[in-house]
Amino acid sequence: MRIVTGEEMASIDAITMNKVGLPGAVLMENAGRGIARKLLDHYGRKRRFFIVIGSGNNGGDGFVVARVLKDEGAEVQVFIVPEESRYKGDAKLHKRVFEQSGYRWKYWKDIESQWPAMLYETDIIVDALLGTGISGQVKEPYASVIASINKLKNEIVSIDLPSGVPAGSAELNHEAIKADRTLTLQWTKVSYYLEETKPYYGEVDVVPIGIPPNTLRHLASQRYIWGKNEVVNSWVMSKPNAHKGDNGRVGIIAGSEAMPGAAALAGSAAVRSGAGFTTIATVAQNVPVIASHVKEAMYTIFSEKHGYLAPTETELAAFMDNKQSIAVGPGLGRTPALTKMVAYLLVHFKGVLILDADALHCLKECGPIVQERTAPTVITPHPGEMAMLIDQSVSYVNKNRFEVAESYAEQYGVYVVLKGPNTIVAEPSGCISVNVTGNAGLAKGGSGDVLTGMVAALVARQRIQPALSSAVFFHGYAADLLAKQRHVLATITPSDIIEHLPEAFSIVDDD
Ligand SMILES: NC(=O)C1=CN([C@@H]2O[C@H](COP(=O)(O)OP(=O)(O)OC[C@H]3O[C@@H](n4cnc5c(N)ncnc54)[C@H](O)[C@@H]3O)[C@@H](O)[C@H]2O)[C@@H](O)CC1
Ligand SMILES: Nc1ncnc2c1ncn2[C@@H]1O[C@H](COP(=O)(O)OP(=O)(O)O)[C@@H](O)[C@H]1O
Ligand SMILES: [K+]
């Protein structure tokens, strides 16, 4: 499933019409028919529908939905907001087809005063006011219509996207429909994956309208959802006769005197995610406590200063030897020794280097070495860490997640795993995959450490992008399994996530 902006959708519509030769009116018929089918399947024929129609092609979809629902015998009232002379193109065509089919519409402004009473006799409001073509602030009379609809208790279903919500950004300084359900056309829209605009959508269902997928190759930005199918199809099965060396040698550099838990969580998650050998480098006093939790790992004791790791180059060189991946960061504390360690690993380690948590704070000083590195580098920032890396606010990062991840990945040639709900994986090529698993049970100290261990294990034996996207998927999926088993979200712990990884991984049936 792809994710598009309004401009991209318009350009793909145009390519489909002009190059492929499928007329816009056919796409509109497909859209309206698909939406009417979903409405009937979901609510049944006996419900009363109230369709509010705007002046653009989103309104055109509304005329098709109204006609098909009426053809099917549903009770439907249709109201248009603009002057009838405003309709043009495909929307005008479908308005005429609606009328020629013997159906009638009324002006919204003529019923405005009595409409709360009318709505009392209505079950479902279908919002066909504004779609992907909206620009700037919502103007009158649309702003008032939207405000009135939002005051009602009726179920609201939006066509394509909630009217007033921009498709490609979270810029929302005006009234927008708060839908219970959105039937989005062909592909989901970027704003559905942004914290500020997501709540307006309600439940989302996708309605295919017949656009050939190969039209997508014309887009400069490629964004897609990495779901169960992608995980299963990209998964590399371990060989039946595999030995532990084949399953990846993973290094985790984590923990300080005050934070042994981070190393235990990351190490344990790496082991549970199938790493052949996991070696944890940490301070000497942590080893007994961590080893009692992660029995399968091996341990390397690094030199330390005041309870924080301060390895020598010789220690680091010995640790790097033979490893396919090294994750550095969880629970290390921010020290000058850490910056030296990160710089050394960036220059000398030839495997996949994963920088997380405190190690991310060294990146600003290490920018040029990151760009010069030829082996893959992965960074796993949460929005606060990403904001620190680009000198912006967290709110800026949350509103511009796609652009921020994509441009950082391209500029520094790294894989960016931008965490939070709908974690994004951006590749150095700019290609983006989005995760749809996970829940607020993960919003806890230590969840990120678990993900880091999982990432380190998966990149050691799979191609890098599928490994990252699938690690993120499984991490969230384990939390979703716990939620399904009626665990209260607030009580889910990072250790619970690790325990549920075998069940999560079972979708890739490794028999
Ligand atoms: N042939 C096509 O292009 C297809 C388009 N489709 C539908 O068409 C929609 C996009 O259609 P359009 O590009 O015509 O745009 P919209 O229908 O989203 O809205 C454009 C209309 O809204 C007005 N408008 C724009 N910004 C406004 C604002 N801030 N305040 C108030 N009014 C504003 C414009 O004057 C214009 O009349 C999609 O969301 C989808 O529902 C589908 O029918 C599939 C086929
Ligand atoms: N509400 C949420 N929905 C889905 N995933 C979440 C949510 N809150 C947090 N997460 C996930 O939990 C992890 C938290 O990581 P992070 O903030 O680095 O925690 P820590 O460093 O304390 O371990 C990330 O993978 C993030 O995507
Ligand atoms: K709409």
UniProtKB/TrEMBL annotation:
CDD domains attached to this UniProt entry: YXKO-related
GO MF term set: ADP-dependent NAD(P)H-hydrate dehydratase activity; ATP binding; metal ion binding; NAD(P)HX epimerase activity
Highest taxon listed in the record's lineage: Bacteria
InterPro entries to which the protein is assigned, alphabetical: Carbohydrate_kinase_pred_CS (IPR017953), CARKD (IPR000631), Nnr (IPR030677), Ribokinase-like (IPR029056), YjeF_N_dom (IPR004443), YjeF_N_dom_sf (IPR036652)
Reactions catalysed according to its record: (6S)-NADHX + ADP = AMP + phosphate + NADH + H(+); (6R)-NADPHX = (6S)-NADPHX; (6R)-NADHX = (6S)-NADHX; (6S)-NADPHX + ADP = AMP + phosphate + NADPH + H(+)
Domain YjeF N-terminal residues, every copy: 9-217
Signal peptide: none
EC number: 4.2.1.136, 5.1.99.6
Cofactor(s) the protein needs: Mg(2+); K(+)
SUPFAM superfamilies linked: Ribokinase-like (SSF53613), YjeF N-terminal domain-like (SSF64153)
Segments forming domain YjeF C-terminal: 227-508
Textual note on the cofactor: Binds 1 potassium ion per subunit.
Record key words, sorted: ATP-binding, Isomerase, Lyase, Metal-binding, Multifunctional enzyme, NAD, NADP, Nucleotide-binding, Potassium
Function statement: Catalyzes the epimerization of the S- and R-forms of NAD(P)HX, a damaged form of NAD(P)H that is a result of enzymatic or heat-dependent hydration. This is a prerequisite for the S-specific NAD(P)H-hydrate dehydratase to allow the repair of both epimers of NAD(P)HX. Bifunctional enzyme that catalyzes the epimerization of the S- and R-forms of NAD(P)HX and the dehydration of the S-form of NAD(P)HX at the expense of ADP, which is converted to AMP. This allows the repair of both epimers of NAD(P)HX, a damaged form of NAD(P)H that is a result of enzymatic or heat-dependent hydration.
NCBIfam families: yjeF_cterm, yjeF_nterm
Family the UniProt entry places it in: In the N-terminal section; belongs to the NnrE/AIBP family.
Protein's recorded name: Bifunctional NAD(P)H-hydrate repair enzyme
Source organism of this protein record: Shouchella clausii (strain KSM-K16)
